[in-house]
Design goal:
This protein is α/β, with parallel strands linked by helices. It folds into 2 domains: 207 residues, Alpha-Beta Complex (Quinone Oxidoreductase, Chain A, domain 1); 143 residues, NAD(P)-binding Rossmann-like Domain (Rossmann fold), CATH 3.40.50.720. 29% of the residues lie in helices and 27% in strands. The chain is built from 13 helices and 19 strands. The strands form 3 sheets. Strands 3, 5, 6, 10, 11, 18 and 19 form a 7-stranded mixed beta sheet that branches. A 6-stranded mixed beta sheet has the order 8-7-2-1-4-9, with no helix packed on it. Strands 14-13-12-15-16-17 form a 6-stranded parallel beta sheet, with helices on both faces. Helix 11 links the parallel strand 16 and strand 17. It starts with a strand and ends with a strand. The mean pLDDT is 97.
Length: 375
C-alpha cells in the first residue's frame, strides 16, 4: 500500500528547519506485514527530543529514514503468527521492542533488549526486515516504529494493546514521555513516599517525572528549567517550587528548601551541563538519575571524592526502566483515575506537513509536546 510519510533526508541541517527542510513529506510504499508483524493506522504521533537528536545529528541513524517513535493507532492488518492483536485493536508504540529471549529481557529489563538495540541502530524491524520503500528503494525504520506517517508496519513486539476508551492522541504520550519520565521515578529510582525530588528540564519527560514524583507521595518537588512558561506549568501541575536553571544561587536555594538537596534529582534534558547541575542539587547519600540522551561526544564531570565520601548514586534510565506491557496499562489507569494528568502536557496539534516547523519549536524549547494528528 501507499501512504504519506515524513522522510528524513539529512542530519545536522541548518536551522531553522522550516527553511532547510531536512524532512520531506513523500509518498512511500509499505509492504504487507510479514511474520510477527502488524500494520497500524496512525492516529497521533508526538514530537520528542529523541527525534530531534536524530534530526540535528546528535544520534546518527541510517538515512533516508521515516522518522517518529511516539504514537498510538489502530491495528489494520496482522501478519502470519500474530495472535495477541487483531484488526481494530488500539495500540501504543514502544521504541524498544522486546525479543523476550535475550538475557536482559529474561532479567525483566526489556529496555536493554540486545537484538532490539542492534535492529534500532541498523534501521530495521526487530526481525531484520525493512518494509518501507521510497522510489523503489528500501529506507530505514526509526527505532522500529517510523510513526510520522499515515500507516506503519512494525514488529508485534513494538506494540502494547490499550483499552479503546482512551482518546488516541492522549494514548500516544504513553509510548515515550510518560513511561520515560514516570518510569525514571518509580522504576529506576524506586522513589518512596516522603522523598524529595528535583527535576532538571521540564519538557514532556521532565514534567511526566514531576507527575510521577507527586503520585508517589513526594514530600517536596522542585522543578528547574530555563523557560518561565515551563516553570509556570510545573507549578500548575503541583510542583512545590521552581527555579531558573541559570540562577547563580540555585544550588544554595534548593538545598535550603529541601534540607540539603533532593533525595533524588532527575536530569531530563540530554545535556551534560544539566547532568552536572542535577548532581549538585542531590543531597548527601542521594541518587541522581539521567533519562536524557546527549550527543555521544559529550562528557560530564563530577568530583570523585564527593561521589565516594557522600555515598552518592548515579543511574541511567532508558525507557523509564519499564516493562511496557505491564506499565503502560497501569499508567493509563492512573491517568483515568486523575492521578497522572498527563493530558496537560499536550501543547499544539499540528499536521504532518508542519513537522519541520514543529522541530524548530522543539529546538527552542517553547513547547512541551506537539502532536501530529491524522484524521
Amino acid at each position: 500500500m501507499k501512504c504519506r510519510a515524513a522522510v528524513l533526508h539529512a542530519m545536522g541541517a541548518a536551522l531553522p528547519y522550516a527553511e532547510s527542510k531536512p524532512i520531506r513529506i513523500e509518498t512511500v510504499e509499505l509492504e504487507a506485514p510479514g511474520p510477527g508483524e502488524v500494520l497500524v493506522k496512525i492516529a497521533a504521533a508526538g514530537l520528542c527530543h529523541s527525534d530531534l537528536s536524530v534530526v540535528n545529528g546528535s544520534r546518527p541513524r541510517p538515512l533516508p529514514m521515516v522518522i517518529g517513535h511516539e504514537a498510538a493507532g489502530v491495528v489494520a492488518e496482522v501478519g502470519p503468527g500474530v495472535s495477541a492483536l487483531a484488526p481494530g485493536d488500539h495500540v501504543v508504540f514502544v521504541f524498544v521492542p522486546s525479543c523476550g529471549a535475550c538475557i536482559p529481557c529474561n532479567e525483566g529489563r526489556p529496555a536493554l533488549c540486545e537484538p532490539a538495540a542492534a535492529a534500532n541502530g541498523a534501521g530495521t524491524l526487530l526481525g531484520g526486515a525493512r518494509r518501507i520503500k521510497l522510489n523503489g528503494e528500501y529506507v530505514g525504520h526509526h527505532v522500529g516504529v517510523s510513526c510520522f506517517a499515515e500507516y506503519a508496519v512494525v514488529s508485534q513486539c513494538s506494540l502494547v494493546k490499550v483499552n479503546g476508551k482512551l482518546p488516541l492522541d492522549q494514548a500516544a504520550l504513553f509510548g515515550c514521555a510518560v513511561i520515560t519520565g514516570v518510569g525514571a521515578v518509580v522504576n529506576t529510582a524506586a522513589m518512596k513516599m516522603g522523598a524529595s525530588a528535583v527535576i532538571v528540564g521540564l519538557g514532556g519527560t521532565g514534567l511526566a517525572a514531576l507527575l510521577g514524583a507527586i503520585a508517589t507521595g513526594a514530600r517536596k518537588t522542585v522543578g528547574v528549567d530555563l523557560l518561565q512558561s515551563k516553570l509556570d506549568l510545573a507549578l500548575e501541575l503541583g510542583a512545590d517550587a521552581v527555579f531558573r536553571a541559570d540562577d547563580p544561587d540555585i544550588v544554595a536555594k534548593v538545598k535550603t528548601l529541601t534540607g540539603g538537596g533532593g533525595d533524588f534529582a532527575f536530569e531530563c534534558v540530554g545535556s551534560e551541563k544539566a547532568m552536572e547541575l542535577a548532581y549538585l542539587l542531590t543531597r548527601r547519600g542521594g541518587t541522581t538519575v539521567s533519562s536524557g540522551l546527549s550527543d555521544p561526544s559529550r562528557r560530564f564531570s563530577i568530583q570523585h571524592v564527593n561521589l565516594v565520601a557522600e555515598e552518592r548514586t548515579i543511574k541511567g534510565s532508558y525507557l523509564g526502566s519499564c516493562v511496557p506491557r505491564r506499565d503502560i496499562p497501569e499508567y493509563i489507569e492512573l491517568f483515568e483515575a486523575g492521578i497522572l494528568p498527563v493530558d496537560k502536557l499536550m501543547s499544539e496539534k499540528i499536521t504532518l506537513e508542519e513537522v519541520n516547523e514543529g522541530f524548530d519549536r522543539l529546538h527552542t524549547g517553547e513547547t512541551v509536546r506537539q502532536l501530529i494528528c491524522f484524521d
